[in-house]
Design a protein that fits this description.
Radius of gyration: 20 Å
Number of strands: 15
Largest sheet: 7 strands, mixed
Shape: globular
Order of helices and strands: EEEHEEEEHHEHEHEHEHEHEHEHE
Length: 335
Amino acid sequence: MRAIVLREFGGPEKFEIMQLPIPAPKAGAVLIRNKVIGVHYSDIRQREGSGIFAKAPLPAVIGFQVAGTIEAIGEGVKGLRPGMRVAAQLISKPADLGKYSAGGYAECSTADVDNVWVLPERVSFEQSMAYLGLTSTKLLYDHFQPVAPDATVLIHGAAGNVGIGLIQIAKRAGNKVIALLRRDEGRVEYCLESGADHVVLISREGWVDEVRKLTGGRGADVSFNSLAGDTVAQDIDALKYAGTYVSTHMWQGWPRDMAWAGKATMACTTFQFTRTADLLRVGPVADKARAYRDDFVRTAKLNRRIAAYRMEDVAKAHVDMEAGRALGKIILTAD
């Protein structure tokens, strides 16, 4: 099979297309012949060898989101059979992230049955990569903190895959959604067509005042913030008294000073830092999240934008992701 191999950490040029043996599924796992492969921001960190990936083994076939058809099943697998259309997360548990090669960037991959999603007919392989993580997005939305049906929510990075998921989930719940973006370039239209009530560009001076105007001076109830950095203090000003700040990521790191802490104390802002991966393995929370995703894709308009690249163009896919040039879920096609 063809596989994209990373021999050493570094830039996108470090990827190589190679022929590797097709892996055999172990007990409790399936072999998937991939049609599409999801590209995730954490793939960039693993390629660079940064953070938790600093000691990741090399050479490696990175990537952990795939969709295709089941080619073979391992011992003890029930309810799944060759030929079924599926999507899968290839990381068994979050503690394993960075410890081994997940094997997603290849024509074939193995996945534990607990992480396999049998695709409804109306969900294409391409769209499945955008909705595979809807389970964790739903948990980000309201598992850790209540969100009232009449709440006004702010969503940073709203045109990203998680951001669009939050827009759709919030609108499904009845919320008023204010999407926050750093630039337009088609992103405003994408957020609006996904259900956002308003879009505010945070690169413009006075965006906090714009949010407060849209909320009648009261401020928003909840902010889902994937950026952090200077936006933490700005969010506190954009939220109502005793509002809620939900950290979905921290791409810009912690704020440069601690002034936000005093501001948050005076405003009685609740801060929620979330981790969903541990909850999605097994148990009632995982079952509920999967049931929500299944109902969602059965009834909702599946309109996520997809940016598709050939496996041979993986370097360009990474460059475009880092530069923010691609709009929609980035995938590699394995056909």
